[in-house]
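Lab meeting prep.
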Amino acid sequence: MKILVLGGTKFIGRHIVETLFAAGHTISILTRGNSSDELPPEIERLRGDRDLGSAGLVALKDCSWDVCVDVSGYTPRQVRASAEMLLSRIKRYIFISTVSIYQDFIEAPVLENRPRMPAAGEDVTVVNGETYGPLKVTCENIVNEIYGSRCTILRPQIVVGPYDHTGRYAYWVQRAAKGGEMLAPGDGSDHLQVIDVRDLAGFVRSVAENNLEGTFNLAGPRLTWSDFFSMLGVQNAVWVSADILKSANVTFAELPLFLPQDSPRCNLMNVSHDRANVAGLQITEPKLTLRDFQTWIKNQQPAPTLSAEREAELIRMSKKID
């Protein structure tokens, strides 16, 4: 197949491109050319800036593909321009969305038919913590409006794996490797849930090759934090209660992946992937995801999301209360 990937050199896009290329497909990518590019030379590089709308997609004119995989669509301006331009040039549009589009996290597990956040206006271009979900809702609406049954919407859980420079998963892996007393959030009974980027990429391949339509949550197994810390090999965990973390105004950015069981969006860590499983999603064992990430992260130096000083202070607060 001939497949166009919008994005393709960074984390998720890179894995998707490498997976599709390894399966024998002919791949083109559209990027601005500003990021490091370690993809095989056989990949066709097209240059464009999606922030410019249709004016930034000139390189796509007079070309056609079987499938488009939209990894880099974050704003309506970006997505409407590409969706409209490619309508007569592709057979299927695969849009990478997010589970952050869901509004109601009261009931679990979270299914694909759960209510979504209110859509952002098509004129919104600022992407931040407040607009990210609503913008993706609007982008989903645009893709569905234009393509109907010819589109597939994928809503991944937090994505982890090699080439992930966000620091979310990396914090816990690198902090565990450092040793010593380590802050463990909550009491061990809360849950976390992620998706291995290679599983996401593999499902994109299944969608493309089998012409699958519809909407799919993509998530991996749920783990308790106690199980996660055991998997990390932490020898000296100090469990700091969710109440202490809240009183100290510890943010999700500082302790990524941690959502206490009674927090408003805790069921973000209880997302159903049953529909995708039936359609062919293959799940990597969490221990294998961790092992491969540990191998990759050895040569990386992402900044810790929680400083050593902040961690020590929170541990002291916990011990003082105990």
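Slide two material, second protein:
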Amino acid sequence: MMRFSPLNLAAGVALLAGIGCADATSSTASPLTVAALNAALSSVPVGYGDLSSSYVGVSASDAGTAGLFLGGGKQASFDRGSLMGGGLHDAFAGSIGFGGRDGSHGPFGGGLKCTSTFDAASGRVVCAAVTRHGVTANRSAQYLDAAGAVQQAFDSLTTNSVNVQSSVSGTIVHDRSADSASSRDHGRGHYGRGRGEAGRLLGDTSTILTASSTLSSTSTRTVTGLASGSTQRTIAGASAGQESTTGTSSRGSFTATRVVGDTTSGVVIPVIVGTKSYPSAGTVIRSIKATLQYSGESAVSLERREVITYDGSAVAKVAITQNGTTKNCTRELPRGHLVCP
């Protein structure tokens, strides 16, 4: 089983967002500030939707030719009332109900849905690799019954433990023609959203001319307590993502990186048939670090870490550290907003 920590992630990429001069054609650019990177917190790299994580990500198949998210647009700033990376996945917030007590129902239930083969040497069910828009996703799973015996397929009654391992890698080339025609284009999952007219970065001051982004992300997750009759499910896992972008703009050439990860430890979901159930214990640690640099200018970085703690109540505690400053917040489950002092 792979192990990752968001504190040890390798370098990776960023959603781009930059602040330039008031006139995009001016030869004198205003200094780049950390605020220019706020939009980098609003999503995770393309393909994260193919991984197992607490983030709300977009799969490679949904990325399209405009899959390189470059941030920007005056209305694309990160919503301070939300958790980063697209928000908290429903399974971690008590938003998924139990339609039955068997392992195919409820949060974290079920097995892989893919064309697959069983590899006897590893004891894992392996999905066929899927490549879309230059990004390849690989997934595999190991199914165990309550006695720890390997199963060749998921069984909704007898499978008690599922370990899923996933990886995503590839390169996406920026399609300038696919940029949103308006900064008001904010459709969910639409990668032109918020870029502003003609593909400009945050602040509508720097227009992207060319860019490509290299992606490399992995995840592992183990869920136990899936066998029929179980009273609770326990979840542990981690993801680690890196994204690296280079390109040219009206402000000059640039490089950008974004490092993303999360770790789930001891999260427990009580099985309550016919209703929704929020986590009663455990923690989820999430982190994103974004860096942007234009040629000849100093680089700027923004780093945020969120620690979500469950204690059995309908309110999760959320400690947020951003660029060294920590504040303690709360979030009502399942769909409350962050409340911070």
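Talking points for slide two:
Confidence is low (pLDDT under 50) at residues 1-27, 65-76, 180-200.
The chain has no helices and 14 strands.
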